[in-house]
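User:
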Amino acid sequence: MAQRRRGAAVWRGLLWCEWFSHAKLLLMVLAAWLLCVWVLPFFTHPGWILLLGGLYALVAGPIFGGDDVVEGCEEFSFALPATRSQRYLARLIVGGGSLLALTLLDLLALGLDLSQTLARLYLQTGLIKPVQVAHPGVLYGLVVAVPCAVFAFAFAGAAVTHSRGHVLTIWFWGGLLALVALRAGLQYEQLMWNKFNGLVACPLLLIAGTGALAAGWWHYCRKEVGPPAAPLELPVHWWLWTLLFLLGIALAMVLVSWLARQVPAFLSAV
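Assistant: Predicted structure:
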């Protein structure tokens, strides 16, 4: 019984610590969501609300996964009574849980047309017209799967590294991996059914993200304290990293441009 109480106290402390450490980020995201729901639709299509989850995943993954590396307190956090597994899972619960909550709020806001509630006073004047996304089933599935995959890749990569530079750039590589998996799934759907239905892309992204989190947990549980967080400096093979980064940017531009051309297909898919 005493051991169970100590375990519960550790979990409460870890969850409160993660929540308190990232309270400013969570409040900023909440404020951005309120602006997207109640203000942005006055100027542009309310469908842009759906991008908020992906942007949050790019930012939150490295922050929740590699916060102790950036702050240079890995040795201190590993010395606490909490185990590595508990610390990893607590960060995942707070970071991943906030992402899921934000994504569900995005879908709820657009699905219930909350952005038009305040504007109903102006609808009869013709100043604002209600806008709906046509047949958004596939799009809604991707809105959940893509941010989850981006967060998982970035979170796991930031958690297992010892380098500040890797933490600060892992958002790019996590997003790129998610785009590659998305393109592979959509391409397979187009070859098999000649349309996008999400039956391959969404499960592929979710399975890949779950695998990344599991691999990150396994490595984090065996992670040793690395060198104290040294100031940012160029790596030894900086030219190779620069070349890889430029190639990654080129690949990301190709994938994003291809996805942009497929937006009408997403909106018309059933």
